[in-house]
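We include the entry.

. . .
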Amino acid sequence: MRAQLLDGVELGRVSPVADLIEAEATRPEATLLRWPGSSWTVREFASAARRCAAELRGCGIQTGDRVAVLSGNSAWRLAWQFGIWWIGAVEVSVNSELKGDLLDFVLADCDPALLVAEREFTGCLHTALTVPRRLLDDAPPPEIDAATARELDAVQTELAPSTLATILYTSGTTGSSKGVMLPRGYFSNQGAVIARVLDLDERDTGYFVLPFFHVDFHVVLPAVIQSGSSVAFDRRFSARRFWPHVREFGCTWAFAIGAVLSIVRKLGAEPAAGTTLRRVLGAPIPDEAYTFFEDRLGIDILSMFGQTEADGPTFETTGRRRRGSAGTPCSHFDVEIHDDRGHPVAAGTVGEIVYRPHSPDLMMLGYWRRDDATVAAWRNLWFHSGDLGRMDDDGFLYFVGRMTDSMRRRGENISAYELEMSLRKAPGVQECASIGVVDEVGGEDEIKVFVVPVDENGFDVDAFFDYCERQLPRYAVPRYVEITSAETFVRSVGTGVIQKRWLSRATSGAGVHDRENLREAHR
């Protein structure tokens, strides 16, 4: 289905660097980035990014080289990201919570020429990793002269919007995580859409609390640059700091996921008294968030459907929205619901969400070193999202769930395949399977793992959870473990794949252990 939502958005943009250079020429002293205790103007951010670009060139980084970034949220992390883009190198945005095999796989797969990292995260790196490192904690890059700045600007003007800019790894579903290849124009074009959805101008300040390594801030920052507005951020999300920061920075909008909104809701309305916040953009949105933010506080919630591969085929706007939906298709995307034979279904019928763009540089270029996965995703000339949804008679999309064997926890997509590969290495584990069960916070997933132990009588549940906390990102640590037998698993004939629909979603009962209860008992 094609709609006229956001018709007239200026697409065909070149890159976030081009957006920044234009903003520097027209409003250099406008505040762009704000964070607790400091801020940067457009000019200061552009200067920092050029300094990073110059240092990268001095290290021998060339156009097309991959530079991995492993860092928490910071202004300098953004400067390095833009510096990489400035010289036409490829940013590989690494999830800073990855550990062990998952981190090793990403770094081996992208094969970077340089790793830019904060010291805080280098302890997770495999000792055999030989990639040169540049620590963000060390002194910032030196100042550069005007001639060098002009040379750098000349380099970026020679790069086409379709040039590969970033590789972002997204959850694998039937195999390892895939690197999503995103072109330079993608971020600017999607940024233009975000700016229109939020109706941004120079009077606005946003509040962003999610990790920068995701695609979200990669498109939000260009939206802010293009609109002449500013954005505040925190090192990491804190419910306690949410309303004080909104008040301190005078934020008019925020970008958040449903889990964040649910946690903030639990603080009650009193901390939000006198707030300047007027709208929130994010997904998925739980029902209680609408009740609290819209009905009680008068703050509009705008939802959307998007993926790393295409950050926003559908959106809500203040003028066109329907509670509980993910909005309607934008004018630059076709969006349909298909059955398992690739045929469109009737309104109200659940099927796979598929989409395709009408303009270039609105979607990924493909999956890094995975032509097979790229072709499979684009079968029948539609991009297959792997997500289930339905559309009503008015074209509003409703997200239903995931078709594939993955889970979502605190805004992170988790590959069951990768999780289980890691858990099989835990002491005493013979076989395992993982599923998502209902989460009381944010409408996402808690993780339940079924373990077939080597020794049923000698399996140490506490040691298993200790292993998980050491080896896995926080969001991937299971909440529940159920001790079971191999006979419990129903497997597909021929493939031997465990049919997880037969596994119990129970979170209590015989053989089920709750990590939070165990940890509480030990305090």
The first strand starts at residue 31 and ends at 35. Residues 20 and 160 are 16 Å apart (CA to CA). The radius of gyration is 23 Å. The chain has 15 helices and 27 strands.
